[in-house]
Amino acid sequence: MSFWESLRIGTSGLTAQRLRLDLISNNIANAQTTATSADGKSFQRKDVVFIPEEKGTFTSKLMAARHADVSNLQGGVKVKEIVTDTSPGSTVYDPTHPDADANGNVTYPNVDITVEMTNMLSATRSYEANLVTIEAVKRMALKALEIGR
Asked: Where are the domains of the chain?
């Protein structure tokens, strides 16, 4: 595996976790949004689904690793899709709220701040880990250049 491939894998992780953080911050920002469209439905939280960025089959990768041919091994992560959580939000009786229905109930988004903050910490740690790997690859490249002096 080349330095460039290692950098590409690290940057794919950075990009993926940045998107995840963007979605989490959007969920937190809309935690109290009760009407997002003309139909009056409340905001629905969104989440991202990642898949490995691979080329080839598991068997080919296993055989390549077994024979120490790592040129075929690809890595990284890519976004498969952004999904909308369709679980219902909480309903609160508040007849004075502008978005209250005929019975005086307001439906709030299905955003749980505790879950979002936990996801945010996880995404931040993953982002930091990818940064550390990129820094390690850069240091290795610099050390390799120093050998040639």
From this structure: 3-31+46-84+111-147
